[in-house]
Amino acid sequence: MTDKPLSGQLTLVTGASRGIGAATALALAEAGAHVVLTARTTGGLEDIEDRIHQSGGTATIAPMDLTQPDSVARLAQAIGERWQKLDILVLNAAMLGSLSAIPAIDMKEMTKVLTLNVSAQAAMLVSLDPVLRAAPAARIIGITSSVGRQPRAYWGVYGASKAAFETLLASYGEELRNLTQARVAILDPGATRTKMRERAYPGEDPASVKPPETVAERIATLARDGFEVNHFERIG
To answer: Which of 41, 43, 52 is nearest to 216 (CA)?
Structure first.
């Protein structure tokens, strides 16, 4: 019997070159899963892939821009042809954008934020739906933010994108509820030591907030143990 609870399972982690995504990829690989790593930064992905291999795990990198629907479709096709199923999907990639008052919104930047944080996530679900349904009990875990549920001054664009992202994921979860064993979870990591957090709070001492590994451990636990449909939780 293997001591790797996710042995034989395939996972896909977006935004896997750094922060929560990188830590999650490492944690899932440690638990025995084969991890497909996606991000725009090839060098960062190669670094995480090397760390996984050095620790005895397995991974495949797929450098790509999630805002390009054709790239997402090609990735889904490749997964279907090589593995036929996808057991765990972690939707972590996101863009913060500028924090500004609503009247000062840069509409071009807002379009970019919504494209990555909402439209690209929808494209992932559309393209990966067949391989998720082909898994015995797929787990889809989306990373959100408290501003998606609790509006905050100057966070309107990012908060709106996360509110839409949550609705999209929860709707998908409801559609899967009675048709498959696939389940959707939405996870708010809370204050975490990431580049995005550093941009949002430039004067904050990074040591005062938890490391990405804490969030990754919880994601790995959810992936291992499963959860009820449309599970939501926040890590303090």
So the answer is: 52
